[in-house]
TrEMBL record:
It is a multi-pass membrane protein. GO terms for biological process: fatty acid elongation, monounsaturated fatty acid; fatty acid elongation, polyunsaturated fatty acid; fatty acid elongation, saturated fatty acid; sphingolipid biosynthetic process; very long-chain fatty acid biosynthetic process. InterPro entries: ELO_CS (IPR030457), ELO_fam (IPR002076). The gene is LOC108892047. This is Elongation of very long chain fatty acids protein.
Amino acid sequence: MKTVSLYSALFSVTNQCCIFLRCTSFMFCGLYAALVFGGQHFMRERPKLNLRRPLALWSLSLAIFSIIGAFRTGLYMLHVLTTSGFRQSVCDTSFYSAPITKFWAYAFVLSKAPELGDTVFIVLRKQRLIFLHWYHHITVLLYSWYSYKDQVAGGGWFMTMNYMVHSFMYTYYAARAAGLRVPRPCAMIITATQILQMVMGLAVVGLVYYWMNEVRCPSNLGNITWGSLMYLSYLILFASFFYNSYLKGSSSGKGSKSE
């Protein structure tokens, strides 16, 4: 009885947090944009800050978080794939409530807020801030905070892929910030995995739409529309970044969307 009461209390708290996240998401992103572009104006006449050690620690902490998240969610998705098949792995919504993945699904949603700190280092170090960077941060946060409460199908794939890509990406950032020499092909591979993530994201959204009325694959047209537009825009932007950074031999390319 106590266990049931505890789970009910946790569900109530989580539900209230979801409502709070939805209500504050646009305000949060607006504040982020104001601080980013206001910070650039503030730093215009000031010397850039080094911040290599804080950046290395920051990136390392996010790398460790992403690696653990990828391991926990990846094992669960592998279990669903091998026991129930691919369709169930796409349509399964127990990812949000299963004992193994419930925490990591919620942690994923919340992590989109501290990840905005990546931009703080770019602004304070007076590095080039590209559109892809801040657009990606804002839209991922909005989509994640809105989608989590609805617990739509496809979420397991979206979160697991993001955890995996971020595991490599933040490890790369930490190594670079620590002054380690990382071969240039590593940056290319990371950007390529980001592009692959967007292709797979579009495929999952498409499958959810296709199966939505045939089997239990809960979603809604609004979520599918915004998810499709989001992943398509990411695919175009990351592909353009890859082309300009590597295929054109641009010396200004940094190897990933932020560094």
